[in-house]
Amino acid sequence: MQPFIILHTNDIHGRVEGLARIATLVEQTRAENPDIPVLFFDAGDIEETSRRLSNLTKGVAMHRLLSLAGCDVVAVGNGGMLRYGYQMLQDYAAVARYPQVLANVRMPDGSPLPGVQFTALLQVGAMQLGLIGITVDTIDGDNMYENYFGLRVLPAVTVTRELAAELRQNGADAVILLSHMGLDTDRKLAADLQQDVDIIIGAHSHDLLPEGERTGRVLIAQAGKYAEHLGRLDLNWDSEHLIVQRASVLPV
Prior knowledge:
The chain has helices at residues 16-32, 52-56, 60-68, 79-84, 88-95, 144-149, 156-169, 183-192, and strands spanning 2-9, 38-42, 73-75, 100-101, 105-106, 119-124, 127-135, 152-153, 174-180, 199-202, 213-215, 218-221, 229-237, 242-251. The chain is of the alpha/beta class. The protein is globular and about 50 Å long.
């Protein structure tokens, strides 16, 4: 049995003070569990135009701070791309100590946007954990990535299913989807991806799920907004199945 912990945030939107407190909680959790892997993921939209430090640096400073907070993988949200252009993702990557994952929005030739990758594969004790990132593709029916940037948007279910299979072929024992698409969409994704992903860590809709929620065998987790809570998943890998022992949120 391989126990491990996942801590997760989403939609921090430039709240530096809250991120500082989250960094302390991440550090404390790792110190309290020296023999258990403790991972920290962010599901997107750490950038924010209305917050001075974030806006003056077009979000770059927030990725520096999230790196210092010990984050392991980040999903690309819609905020930074739509406000500053997808080209900023390269600047975020230059200062980040983690990979940025985004699979459903791509360059016209189908390649990853500069500075991102479709998936990540992490060694967690005795198991390998695959991660896929997707972001909201339309707002009020407007496909902004295609209309304004000439990018290519792929169906979330199709791309997730294909990449989950690829990750498993490459050794992933379990697959987590970092989804910046909102809770309503995540529920539909969970229903469609029962055999493909184990957990969806969500964002965009600013929902707080104190104990997570299940759609069939897939757990959906989301930690609210503005660095007010830190999500926590206590997990076990029994060499065949990923078992969620507890889903919770910690007030920040």
